[in-house]
Amino acid sequence: MKSMSTIKASAKATYLVLCREKGISRVTVSDLTERANMARSTFYLHYDNLNSLLYEIENELLNDLKMLSISHIYPDGADKYLWLHSSISSQLCKTKENLEWYSLLLGSRGNPSFSRKVYHHIRTEASKKYKSMNVEINDIELDHICSGGLGMFLHWIRTNAALKPDRLAHLMIPPFHDTSNL
Questions:
Q1: What is the mean pLDDT of residues 67-76?
Q2: Mean pLDDT, range 20-42, rounded to an integer
Q3: Quick check: 150 and 126 in contact, CB under 8 A?
Q4: Where in the chain is the domain with CATH 1.10.10?
Q5: What is the pLDDT of residues 155-164, one digit of tens each?
Q6: Looking at residue 175, what is its pLDDT?
Q7: Where does CATH 1.10.357 sit in the chain?
Q8: Multiple choice CATH, 1-47, 2.30.30, 3.30.70, 3.40.1440, 1.10.10
Q9: pLDDT band at 182, cuts 50/70/90?
Q10: Using alpha carbons only, what angle is made at residue 67 by residues 153 and 47, rounded to the nearest 5 degrees?
Q11: H-helix segments, the chain
């Protein structure tokens, strides 16, 4: 008898393959269970439907990023650039581990709501990081930084993570200077 984690891993791996072949919206439970050699009842024992499977996958990806954010606490007096670079770079490395899922979910045949969730994550975490560094930033600046960051992130995903995470992290960090009297 297979363990729950083995069954879920099989369902997710099969779902990924089918979504790449057909697109997320065209995969059916029958497609998945046939390809995974899984009984429909087994699938429904673990998931209500394909949306609940997709929701679980998206939440796992976002939770991985959130856990990394939580683990990077700004130590008072640290170099802001180096700390932020380390934080972003580690999140990009984690993303690279799941590049196939990000490529699928953020690609042209992906899930538009996941893109909004990623943006929300980026904006929330950026706001927290700037506050922890005592960097004042208004909503327009934050939106500008996060929109640009998401654009670079999406390009990086579409190019199969061609840039090293270290380099992309460098490009994503805005300069820290006082613009209040411009």
A1: 84
A2: 95
A3: no
A4: 1-47
A5: 999 999 999 9
A6: 75
A7: 54-182
A8: 1.10.10
A9: very low
A10: 90
A11: 4-22, 29-35, 40-46, 50-71, 80-97, 99-106, 112-132, 139-158, 165-172
Percentage above 90 pLDDT, the chain = 68
Name, in order, each residue with C-beta under 8 angstroms of 162's C-beta and a sequence gap of 6 or more. Answer: 156
Secondary-structure class of domain 54-182 per CATH? mainly alpha
| Gyration radius of the chain's alpha carbons | 19
**Nearest Cα residue to 2 out of 29, 48, 30, 37:** 37
| Whole-angstrom distance, CA of residue 51 vs CA of residue 53 | 5
Q: What's the pLDDT at 176?
A: 61
CB-CB contact of 7 with 40 (8 Å): no
d(CA 111, CA 170): 28
69's CB contacts (< 8 A; 6+ apart) are: 87, 91, 125, 128, 129
Measured between its terminal Cα atoms, the distance across the chain in Å is 67
Q: Is the pTM of this model over 0.90?
A: no
State the average pLDDT over residues 75-82.
88
Q: Are 81 and 133 in contact (CB under 8 A)?
A: no
The whole-number pLDDT of residue 36 equals 96
Instruction: Taking the CA atoms of 134, 138, 140 and 141 in sequence, report the sign of the dihedral they define.
Output: negative
